[in-house]
Design brief:
Layout: H1 2-14, E1 17-23, H2 27-30, H3 33-41, E2 46-51, H4 58-68, E3 74-76, H5 85-96, E4 103-108, H6 115-123, E5 129-132, E6 141-144, E7 149-153, H7 165-171, H8 182-196, H9 198-205, H10 214-224, H11 236-248
Parallel strand pairs: 1-2, 1-4, 2-3, 4-7
Antiparallel strand pairs: 5-6, 6-7
The structure holds guanosine-5'-diphosphate and magnesium ion.
């Protein structure tokens, strides 16, 4: 994945400000320490953009924000509900502090974190043109956002390790039926929801959770949803796939 590293370095070198786009449902897991270190090395300012905020409660958002703010300024965005883009535009202008030319903003992050949606949101009616940048990795695009801002949109080709399968599942890079371990990913989702918004999980699957054990919760959901094998035991693979699907479709609110 050498070309990925070259692309990231190149974008960081060219940009005046960087956006690290993370999924607000699991910002810690979708941050990338290598990318952050590279930005810091290049002495460029960056903003952590928490996208898909419509899928996260206000309370959880604020908690995450106060932690992440120690690293970089944090902006909440929901492209779906169209909020946060004015704030982001404002932050970019403030951080870049460039008066005499256009500001180049690089956007980085895992695939499906919402990079293109964030850019489209900020660009909105200002969109004038998009173009591929010659000499760049396929898929890197320059988007003119008007009002002195230009974005570099990148494909999120961050290399994954085997153990990152759950990030791929949670981000919807791999759909549920293609996961090697859908049950494992589902258990992560259950753990996360039980810690952060158990009520939403209970309401969605119409269950009352008493156990602390995420596998018990998966079985409970399976029984309630009637996901059973012939002998009457819970079909854990089928329930797992279902939970991952619901998460990927944005039906489970953290
Ligand atoms: N609920 C919700 N979904 C979003 C939001 N932004 C993006 N998505 C979804 O996330 C997926 C990836 O978005 P995209 O912008 O293509 O991500 P990119 O790969 O990082 O450029 C798409 O299915 C979008 O519909 C948002 O604000 N809210
Ligand atoms: Mg994109």
């Amino acid at each position: 994945m050498a070309s990925y590293k070259v692309m990231v370095k190149d974008v960081i070198r060219k940009a005046d400000v960087l956006l690290e786009v993370v999924d607000a449902r699991f910002p810690d897991e979708t941050r990338n320490s290598e990318v952050e270190a590279e930005i810091v090395r290049a002495k460029k300012p960056f903003i952590i953009v928490m996208s898909k905020c419509d899928l996260v409660s206000q309370e959880t958002l604020e908690k995450k924000k106060s932690l992440l703010s120690k690293i970089a300024p944090v902006v909440f965005i929901s492209s779906k509900e169209r909020f946060g883009t004015t704030m982001l535009r404002h932050r970019i202008l403030e951080l870049a502090n460039i008066k005499d030319r256009d500001i180049l903003v690089g956007s980085l992050g895992y695939p499906n974190t919402g990079k293109s949606s964030v850019i489209n949101g900020v660009v909105g009616r200002h969109r004038t043109s998009t173009s591929s940048i010659s000499g760049h990795t396929k898929g890197v695009q320059l988007v003119n956002a008007g009002s002195r801002i230009k974005f570099i949109d990148t494909p999120g080709v961050i290399p994954f390790d085997e153990h990152d399968e759950y990030i791929q599942g949670m981000l919807g890079i791999k759909d549920a039926t293609h996961l090697k371990d859908p049950i494992g990913v589902a258990l992560k989702i259950i753990e996360k929801m039980c810690a952060e918004n158990r009520t939403a999980l209970e309401a969605f699957y119409k269950v009352t959770i008493e156990s602390q054990d995420s596998y018990d919760v998966l079985e409970l959901i399976g029984r309630q949803a009637n996901c059973l094998k012939k002998k009457g035991e819970v079909d854990d693979t089928r329930v797992g796939i279902r939970i991952v699907n619901d998460w990927q479709r944005g039906l489970l609110l953290v």
